[in-house]
């Protein structure tokens, strides 16, 4: 995990700082109990740290158990979860891909994009338009690569001009990209199906929930692994450095623009994959479900809840938000449900701006006592 | 009466009752005590079959008045069946869900209904995109699905027309599809011409999929009847300022504008038009169907008309209309209850759809769609049902619009497609049915400021 | 043709005046704190609904005040809401630009859901303060009196604001902070109070805009997004933080929209202003009257 970003100067920062200190004291107290536990677990973690740690980062025994436990719980979900939970998992896997992809670009470089739904929407629309306007019989092995390629092209088309801008200006222009894409769908309704969208996309394993789960989960896990490796490599370091101090990066003789464009490439490809998966999950592509700016905001919310700039944080955030949305809060009226959800995100933004999962991770780090 | 049984129903599977169950599942899902429920999975094939309970799934945007009206109407229909003869001695359950207005919300709901709740019948869906978004999922499951909200003709032509065998479990008992609506609208224009001597019409369909057929057909249909189309523009749904349109319509000398608006916020056209522009506003306006629209528009809708199945529930259409409306009002109107105070058009259609299916099930002698779908389809296509909104029968496999509701005509040859108008009263305004002539509760009024 | 041009000239001026009301508050808040307040559309919505609640007898039982009083109430309520938004939330997080604009998005979304829950999703109609329209025979158009009133109110508000920020000490301190926060602090300006005043003023302007937009366009839970997009576009074109720039850009966009509407049809109405926006962002990112974005 990357280092915590500076805690804010304002009261939010002070409050969370104070809470952190109190919590920290409690945690330190607890660690007398948990340290032995950690010590017992450490041998396994050590094996991992020696073999794979170099790629994914080292961790202590508790962290290792958390991660492996979450992983095992996830891959076995079709065997212990009920229908609602499994169904939510499909969506959570896809949104997890979106949140991680957003993170490698926006979370790492600090160039906050409001336009990522254009990338996933572009890929989904490519699949749908190929099937509806070219040939309904096109196999997935043709539609998927083309769709992902289009997502990449759109990503570069947004990145090349807009990366000259920084801060809010960059966010604005990506936001505008969504508006332009959205507003073009109706005038071009002959090809895009207008607001009713396009159907006729094969839904993968629509009668086999178990296989379907893996159809969405395996790409998600592969993308997570790939992005983690990238994020922990030198590329990831440079992206973070751009966020922290871009002029210093330039001063060090590194072409920051080149790396920002790389971050868009790294982001666009998995966004495209996720968009295609989403199209195959619903079988129809509509502007409301695939393009509108709410989608981009939701991705951002997930990443923020989990912890921007950590890949796994946004993934966890995606699962948390989707599970809240579709499982835990699904009994409430929709307005109440969304109000609660946005309120939670707002509270996390104010009081835990580094994200819940990053807090959890560092908490475990302390609980485990000294690593060496 | 319906009221007496209300409590037991509400505490059961219906409406708010289902909230408790889903919350429990949610909590259970989030916790770890889910093993007991794991049997639900793999239960994909256990849908269908005759388990002694007929579970009806209702889909509507219940955040909107239209959806609330439909949900309440479904409850009334289920209550009636329970208290009456029922359907083949089956227990009857109603599950109702909020589709909101998005396909991404609706698809999971439908999957749950089919795979987890084992519904035996689905009714509802309001927007065309939502209906079409779930067509494939529903078709694969074979669960009978009766559309009661969206009128888009493509929902039949692009699906049943392409592969009848696949989509044969999907029906529509109302509203009449947009192809017929276009014809009915032309007939209505002719009526206006007879009544007021209007000859020049302007067309103003919003830029949306559902208006395509009106855009394509209506000009020709009007000209066939000797009427002139003097203006034809398609405003985008984002249009907020209609002054340029109204100005042009006025300068073309139109007697009336026929507009087709479903997207929100079109009250604005009325605000500029009322009391000012010398032409009438006719056509379809979804917001204006609400019985509360007079208040919502602060009376700005005066003299405006819209079409709607059930005619707003203000007058007798079939012999069953007002009975149903009175049941609805007895249970859901007044006493601080949320709007709508009338079932609205989707309510009529949902109410009729459930009774229609009950009749078809009796005819087929089965509700086991997994085994006997063909019998059910045959029965659906053979019966006739005098509902609250219309006398309903469905077109056969070889018709232009298979499984779709057929139009009925009055004695004078007018399509049964009620138009309502907001007319002024002493202390406000009320909706009146002004067409077809046979059913009307009041004569169509020309806006008072037209010379 | 002449008629069309005249009609564009007149209607464009009316629309632009209201756009100016929408954008000025947004740009002021950005100017003094570097805060991108994405809840600005939400404030506009609060104005419209406050007006609805206070003037319409169909919402809250018997409460129905005269519309002019309703306008005042809506303005005050929105100003207070804006102040509360600053004092209760933004003040604590404004050090971080990203967190701030994400938080204000959440506030806007939260408002949407609450209004949706309370008032339903169907659009409401606001009672016009001035009923009826002015029929311009020669031009072949009618102008809603609300547009004329909006035009007048907009220019009065702009005039007062101009007087305030250029002729009074309190106002000058706002201008000073927007030019250089550090410089202003060095000359003894109380930053907190300047910001609070800015948010109050921005809120009041948003409330006014809300009443006019709500009457002339729609009052619905989704009404915040379009004004926000308009405010964005205008502020970027005019230069972030510049009041003069916002007024000029508001007229640019207002006329552009009216022109596309009259001569190209409504399909392209939204797209043209976006294209202009992209062009300005890429060619002159500081806007027509703005400075480079150089906060620290």
TrEMBL record, chain A:
It is a multi-pass membrane protein. GO terms for cellular component: plasma membrane. The chain crosses the membrane at residues 61-81, 88-105, 143-163, 169-185, 221-241, 261-279, 300-324, 336-352. GO terms for molecular function: branched-chain amino acid transmembrane transporter activity. It comes from the Archaea. The keyword Membrane applies. Its main location: membrane. This is Branched-chain amino acid ABC transporter permease.
From TrEMBL, chain C:
It is a multi-pass membrane protein. One of its GO terms (molecular function) is transmembrane transporter activity. One of its GO terms (cellular component) is plasma membrane. It is found in: Cell membrane. InterPro entries: ABC_transp_permease, BCAA_transport_permease. GO terms for biological process: amino acid transport. Its main location: membrane. The chain crosses the membrane at residues 7-29, 35-52, 59-85, 97-117, 145-165, 198-216, 228-254, 266-283. Keywords: Amino-acid transport, Cell membrane, Membrane, Transmembrane, Transmembrane helix, Transport. It comes from the Archaea. Belongs to the binding-protein-dependent transport system permease family. LivHM subfamily. This is Branched-chain amino acid ABC transporter permease. It comes from Natrinema thermotolerans.
């Amino acid at each position: 995990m990357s280092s915590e970003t500076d805690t804010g100067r304002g009261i939010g920062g002070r409050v969370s700082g104070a809470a952190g200190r109190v919590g920290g004291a409690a945690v330190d107290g607890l660690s007398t109990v948990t340290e032995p536990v950690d010590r017992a677990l450490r041998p396994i973690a050590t094996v991992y740290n020696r073999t794979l740690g170099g790629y994914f980062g080292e961790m202590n025994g508790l962290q290792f158990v958390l991660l492996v436990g979450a992983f095992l719980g996830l891959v076995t979900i079709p065997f212990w979860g009920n229908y609602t939970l499994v169904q939510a998992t499909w969506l959570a896997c896809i949104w997890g891909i979106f949140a991680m992809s957003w993170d490698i670009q926006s979370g790492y470089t600090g160039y906050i994009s409001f336009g990522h739904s254009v990338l996933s929407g572009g890929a989904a629309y490519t699949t749908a338009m190929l099937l509806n306007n070219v040939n309904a019989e096109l196999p997935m092995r043709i539609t998927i690569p083309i769709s992902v390629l289009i997502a990449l092209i759109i990503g570069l088309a947004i990145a090349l001009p807009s990366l000259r801008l920084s801060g809010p200006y960059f966010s604005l222009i990506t936001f505008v990209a969504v508006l332009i894409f959205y507003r073009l769908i109706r005038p071009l309704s002959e090809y895009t199906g207008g607001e009713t969208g396009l159907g006729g996309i094969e839904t993968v394993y629509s009668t086999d929930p178990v296989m379907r789960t893996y159809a969405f989960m395996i790409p998600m896990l592969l993308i997570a692994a790939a992005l983690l490796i990238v994020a922990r490599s030198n590329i990831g370091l440079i992206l973070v450095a751009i966020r922290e101090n871009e002029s210093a990066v330039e001063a060090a003789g590194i072409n920051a623009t080149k790396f920002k464009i790389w971050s868009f490439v790294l982001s666009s490809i998995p966004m495209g994959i996720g968009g295609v998966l989403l199209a195959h999950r619903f079988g129809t592509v509509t502007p409301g479900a695939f393009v509108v700016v709410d989608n981009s905001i939701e991705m951002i919310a997930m990443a923020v809840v989990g912890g921007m700039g950590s890949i796994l944080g946004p993934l966890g955030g995606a699962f948390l938000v989707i599970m809240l949305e579709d499982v835990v809060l699904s009994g409430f009226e929709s307005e109440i449900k969304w109000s609660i959800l946005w309120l939670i995100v707002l509270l996390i933004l104010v009081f835990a701006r580094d994200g819940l999962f990053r807090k959890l991770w560092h908490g475990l780090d302390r609980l485990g006592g000294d690593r060496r | 009466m319906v009221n007496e049984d209300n409590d037991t129903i509400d505490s059961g599977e219906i409406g708010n009752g289902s909230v408790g169950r889903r919350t429990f599942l949610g909590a259970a899902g989030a916790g770890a005590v889910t093993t007991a429920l794991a049997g639900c999975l793999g239960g994909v094939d256990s849908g269908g079959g005759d388990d002694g309970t007929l579970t009806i799934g209702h889909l509507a945007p219940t955040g909107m008045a239209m959806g609330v009206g439909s949900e309440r109407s479904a409850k009334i229909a289920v209550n009636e069946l329970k208290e009456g003869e029922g359907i083949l001695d089956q227990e009857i359950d109603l599950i109702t869900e909020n589709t909101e207005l998005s396909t991404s919300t609706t698809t999971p709901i439908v999957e749950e209904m089919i795979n987890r709740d084992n519904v035996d019948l689905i009714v509802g869906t309001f927007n065309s995109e939502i209906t079409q978004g779930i067509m494939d999922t529903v078709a694969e499951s074979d669960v009978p699905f009766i559309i009661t909200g969206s009128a888009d003709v493509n929902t039949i032509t692009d699906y049943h027309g392409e592969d009848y065998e696949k989509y044969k479990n999907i029906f529509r008992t109302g509203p009449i599809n947009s192809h017929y609506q276009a014809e009915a609208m032309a007939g209505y224009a002719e009526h206006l011409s007879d009544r007021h001597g209007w000859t020049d019409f302007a067309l103003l369909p919003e830029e949306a999929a559902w208006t395509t057929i009106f855009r394509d057909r209506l000009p020709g249909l009007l000209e066939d009847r000797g009427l002139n189309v003097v203006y034809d523009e398609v405003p985008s749904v984002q249009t907020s300022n209609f002054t340029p349109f109204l100005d042009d319509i006025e300068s073309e000398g139109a007697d009336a504008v026929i507009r087709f608006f479903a997207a929100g916020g079109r009250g604005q056209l009325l605000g500029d038009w009322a009391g000012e522009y010398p032409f009438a506003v006719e056509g379809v306006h979804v917001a204006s169907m609400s019985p509360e629209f007079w208040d919502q528009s602060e009376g700005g809708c005066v003299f405006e008309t819209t079409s709607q199945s059930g005619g707003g529930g203000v007058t007798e259409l079939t012999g069953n209309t007002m009975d149903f409306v009175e049941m609805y009002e007895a249970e859901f109107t007044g006493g601080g209850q949320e709007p709508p105070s009338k079932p609205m058009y989707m309510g009529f259609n949902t109410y009729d759809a459930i009774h229609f299916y009950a009749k078809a099930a009796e005819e087929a002698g089965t509700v086991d769609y997994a085994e006997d779908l063909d019998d059910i389809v045959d029965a659906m296509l053979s019966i006739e049902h005098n509902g609250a909104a219309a006398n309903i029968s469905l077109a056969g496999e070889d018709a232009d619009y298979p499984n779709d509701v057929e139009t009925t005509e009055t004695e004078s040859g007018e399509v049964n497609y009620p138009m309502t108008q907001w007319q002024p009263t002493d202390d406000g305004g009320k909706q009146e049915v002004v067409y077809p002539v046979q059913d009307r509760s009041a004569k169509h009024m020309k806006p008072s400021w037209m010379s | 043709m002449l008629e069309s041009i005249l009609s564009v000239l007149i209607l464009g001026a009316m629309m632009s005046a209201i756009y100016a009301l929408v954008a000025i508050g947004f740009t002021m808040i950005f100017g003094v704190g570097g805060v991108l307040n994405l809840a600005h559309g939400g404030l506009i919505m609060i104005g419209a609904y406050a007006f609805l609640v206070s003037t319409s007898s169909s919402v809250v039982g018997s409460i129905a005040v005269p519309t002019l009083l309703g306008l005042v109430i809506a303005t005050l309520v929105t100003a207070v809401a804006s102040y509360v938004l600053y004092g209760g939330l933004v003040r604590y997080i404004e050090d971080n630009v990203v967190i701030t604009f994400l938080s204000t998005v959440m506030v806007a979304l939260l408002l949407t859901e609450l209004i949706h829950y309370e008032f339903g999703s169907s659009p409401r109609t606001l009672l016009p303060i001035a009923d009826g329209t002015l029929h311009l025979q020669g031009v072949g158009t009618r102008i809603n009196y609300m547009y004329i009133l909006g035009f007048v109110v907009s220019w009065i508000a702009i005039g007062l604001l101009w007087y305030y920020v250029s002729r009074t000490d309190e106002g000058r301190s706002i201008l000073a902070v927007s030019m250089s926060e550090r410089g202003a602090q060095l000359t003894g300006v109380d930053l907190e109070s300047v910001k609070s005043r800015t948010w109050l003023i921005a809120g009041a302007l948003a409330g006014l805009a809300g009443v006019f937009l709500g009457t002339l366009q729609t009052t619905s839970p989704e009404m915040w997004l379009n004004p926000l997009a308009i405010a964005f576009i205008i502020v970027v074109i005019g230069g972030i933080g510049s009041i003069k720039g916002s007024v000029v850009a508001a007229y640019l966009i207002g006329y552009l929209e009216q022109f596309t509407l009259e001569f190209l049809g409504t399909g392209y109405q939204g797209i043209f202003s976006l294209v202009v926006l992209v062009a300005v962002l890429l060619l002159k990112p500081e806007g027509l009257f703005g400075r480079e974005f150089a906060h620290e």
